[in-house]
Amino acid sequence: MNRRLLIWGVLAFAAIVLLANSLFIVDQTHQALVLQVGNPVRVINAGPNGTPGLKAKVPFVQNVVQFDKRNLILEAAQEEIIAADNNRLVVDAYVRYRISDPLQYYRTLRNQTNAEARLQPLANSSLRQILGGAASQNIVSSQRVALMTRIRNDVAQRATDSRLGIQVIDVRIKRADLRTENQENVFRRMQTAQQQQATETRAVGERRKREIVAQATEDSEKIRGEGDARRAQIFASTYGKDASFARFYRSMQAYEASLGQGDTTMVLSPDSEFFRYFSRGPAAQ
Fold first, then answer.
1. Residue 24 buriedness (CB in 10 A; 0-12 / 13-18 / 19+)
2. Would you say residue 124 has pLDDT above 60?
3. Residue 88: closest CA among 155, 146, 140, 123
4. pLDDT at 284
């Protein structure tokens, strides 16, 4: 009886071991590669149409290697870039990538450590090449977006050409700072450029102001001339109709011109022409 129980126990244990080595689970965030004697024979849950879940393999003959299906991040080593204007910048960047071909990835790289060791020099080389052809002001300004697009495309193409089995999704600069000894020179140049622009803008404004004033003066002189001509015409017409009033009006203008400055004193007798007009009016003439 004990012997029979022992046999059943051994068989149950063997079945459990056999089952444990026959089944495995692939999570939806991973993809798997089934190996037989070290050679890949099957890929599971690769690509957008993969099927995760419980899977089976040949026990003791086949084994499974799983890779992350999510986006991975490589923190690129800090790089010193010499920009096109000979300024030195310290650049920190990162690469976002994913394993797009697990079979090629396994054959070429085997694991994430080797993958990042291969991807790191590709990213650094692209950063040096593209950022080295740009001015430091463009690297730290809004043009950085266009530069990073070029770097991403370049690193992605290099990874494809190297047949690494990975897809580069993005490359981003976390920090791009001038070295301490370069900051003062760059800021001084930027200040000078802004001052030149302000001077040019001010000169344009002054020139425009002079043009407007000249045009306004010309228009006012024209209007004044037309008014004087009209006044002379009216005066001539009035003089022809009433000579006495015309003489009276001219006398008033003469007195106004003489006394209008405020620093002239005139001594007149009561029977002067001025008082005669006020006492008897223009008809007295």
1. middle
2. yes
3. 140
4. 47
What's the total number of domains in the chain?
Answer: 4
- Residue 82 in contact with residue 46, Cβ under 8 Å? no
Cβ-Cβ contacts under 8 Å for 112 (sequence gap 6 or more): 68, 72
Beta strands (DSSP E) in the chain are 23-26, 30-36, 39-44, 53-56, 62-68, 72-75, 79-82, 88-99, 166-178
Task: Report if residue 234 sits inside a domain.
Answer: yes
> Would you tell me how many other CB atoms lie within 10 Å of the CB of residue 156?
20
Let me know: does 43 contact 65? Beta carbons within 8 Å.
no
Running DSSP on this structure, what letter comes out for residue 204? H
Q: Does residue 224 share a domain with residue 148?
A: no
The token pair that represents 33 in the structure block: 């590669």
d(CA 71, CA 154): 19
pLDDT in tens, 135-178: 888 887 778 889 999 999 999 999 999 999 999 999 998 888 77
The set of residues, in sequence order, having a beta carbon less than 8 Å from that of 52 and lying 6+ positions away, is 26, 27, 28, 30, 44, 45
Q: What is the DSSP letter of 86?
A: S
Query: Whole-structure pTM over 0.85, yes or no?
Result: no
Q: What is the pLDDT of residues 225-234, one digit of tens each?
A: 888 788 777 7
Nearest to 83 by CA among 49, 113, 127, 121: 127
- The rounded radius of gyration (Å) of the Cα atoms in the chain is 48
pLDDT of 115 higher than 60 = yes
- 53 and 91, same domain (yes or no): no
User: Does 205 map to a domain?
Assistant: yes
Tell me if residue 28 falls in helix, strand or coil: coil
- Of 10, 38, 68, which one is at a domain's C-terminal end? 68
Q: H or E element: which one contains 271?
A: none
